């Protein structure tokens, strides 16, 4: 009886899995999800962290772009987190401004956007300081 119950459970599980669409399929009728994270460091260690961007939505339709920064530098830093959209001639769109200490993060900042194939957007971290800003770009999110 126990073997039969396990076999039935396996069949039901296999049938359920085959009905669930792949999360990254991303056709016009299925919601897709793509993510890219980038470690951002300079040789001095004064600016260190990870920036991540994720894209969720239907290719050829509206979706959301989430951007987050995780600060690992020993000193607090004032920074701006932004999204730069590929082909956009305007400056990056700021999604968060503030000061972070070691171990803190911006949380995921969400914005609505049209989702196309290829490189949709990439995150930008701008550390603000009196002697000039330090800018680092993260990896582009490649939607396929």
UniProtKB/TrEMBL annotation:
Name the record gives this protein: Peptidase inhibitor family I36
Keywords: Signal
Organism in which the protein naturally occurs: Lentzea tibetensis
Domain of life from the UniProt record: Bacteria
Record's signal peptide: 1-25
Source lineage: Bacteria, Bacillati, Actinomycetota, Actinomycetes, Pseudonocardiales
């Amino acid at each position: 009886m126990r073997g039969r119950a396990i076999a039935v459970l396996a069949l039901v599980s296999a049938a359920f899995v085959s009905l669930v669409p792949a999360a990254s399929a991303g056709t016009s009728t299925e919601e897709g999800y793509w993510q890219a994270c980038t470690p951002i460091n300079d040789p001095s260690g004064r600016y260190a962290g990870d920036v991540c961007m994720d894209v969720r939505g239907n290719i050829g339709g509206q979706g959301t772009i989430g951007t987050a920064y995780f600060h690992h530098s020993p000193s607090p830093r004032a920074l701006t987190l932004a999204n730069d959209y590929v082909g956009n001639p305007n400056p990056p769109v700021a999604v968060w401004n503030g000061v972070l200490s070691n171990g803190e993060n911006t949380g995921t900042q969400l914005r609505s956007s049209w989702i196309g194939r290829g490189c949709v957007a990439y995150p930008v971290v701008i550390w603000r300081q009196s002697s000039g800003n330090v800018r680092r770009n993260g990896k582009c999110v490649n939607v396929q």
